[in-house]
Design brief:
single chain, mainly alpha, 0% strand
Amino acid sequence: MVGEEMSLRKRLSKSSDGPEEKEDQGNPAKQAPETPSNGQVDVKEIIAKKKQLTAEAEELKPYFMKEVGTHFDDFVTNLIEKSVSLDSGGSTLTSFSVLGGVNNHRAKDLRAPPEHGKIFVVRRSLLDTLVVDYIDEGRLVLEFNLIYYAFGQFPVVICTWCAMFLSTLSVPYFLFQHWARGYSKSSHPVIHSLFHGFFLMVFQIGILGFGPTYIVLAYTLPPASRCIVIFEQIRMAMKVHSFVRENVPRVLTSAKEKSKTVPVPTVNQYLYFLFAPTLIYRDNYPRTPTIRWSYVVMQFAQVFGCLFYMYYVFERLCAPLFRNIKQEPFSARVLILCVFNSILPGVLGLLLTFFAFLHCWLNAFAEMLRFGDRMFYKDWWNSTSYSNYYRTWNVVVHDWLYYYAYRDFLWFFTKRFKSAAMLAVFAVSAVVHEYAIAVCLSFFYPVLFVLFMFFGMAFNFIVNDSRKRPIWNVMMWTSLFAGQGVLLCFYSQEWYARQHCPLKNPTFLDYIRPRSWTCRYVF
């Protein structure tokens, strides 16, 4: 390879600087192509020479581009180093050479003589985003195009939420109140219960289920706006189930005891529950004496701070990675590189989401409502087993799954099938998670379902509570890192594949068939 490159360079130098060129310049007869006696130019000879020159140029092209790329990389690297030095006020970096002696200058500028040891100067980290912006653009870049896009059509979101909230406040409460007050008086209580249960199911599935989903699809809401609507849809459905599930046994007990009073909660109690940071209904909750409004403001400020940082993570670490994917086929090599490059932004997104929602957002509403029990999460980061991680990561959702999925399953099957009950809980959780992601991203790609239903469930049984050694905590974090990288990589690849490889007339199968496996990005 090197010998071929040297021979090409010699041929190029000979063709440009050799004695034949001087001879040709002194002899005009050799400069022009041979002409026949009639004075016309031989076209075939000209075409042959042009083909020869084109072939030589094609052979030299890769080596020329390689040389240019090497010098350009050195130039940019030295320019960034010099900018950092000038920005910090230091003078450790001196002259920079672009072409000749770049490596020598770099070594001299960045390393002091061994006898002097390490020299400390005032300088900033290159990962400081503001400094990077200043170096790249010569100014502070504070653009929020990604946020504006993600939260687009926000008035539609507000109107949809208001409709969901008003229907959730009125329809389930009215149906339950009408059923409770007429149950003991009805001559056919079973039919009476089935009638009201049917209409409640119609509300849950038809109005609260299909309604918001149809709106986000019909109005083609962007991802973050879709997340707000779908997450609120799921939250309200879980709250309605808890309200009915907790109060129906009380009414049945009252009717069995032939009590004159019907235990129907007040509208204020139900309204408080709809805003309270819990999914388990109670008539009354422990309350704090006062509201610390400064604490509320601080929590909401931290939510917006996390949102801003999340935007920077996606803008700096995710968008450049997936936006500049070249034309290369889907392979194991591409997939592994993508997963490893996605681990850092994936874990940052996980931690930011945890802190912004489970800590700041829920604590802000708990403070405004004087809600006393604020155990929204436990020390999941110290878990040595996945079973403990699932119990402590999100206590709010875990309590709902434990009381209304796991325990009700055991009650229905007389506590004989604990493993089957746990499997049912995993299935419900995996289906709901996959539904939310599919609607929010506008495509079905069951990566989370596979990880959650198969790997997550397997880890729950294998890495159980009997594992107490610290090494299991390391393994838990390692698998968590890898899982976040896989999720971000697969879903981001599919998102950009559907953006750059749209179909003119997509069928139903096109929405569920992975586009990233066959798409070739063209930039």
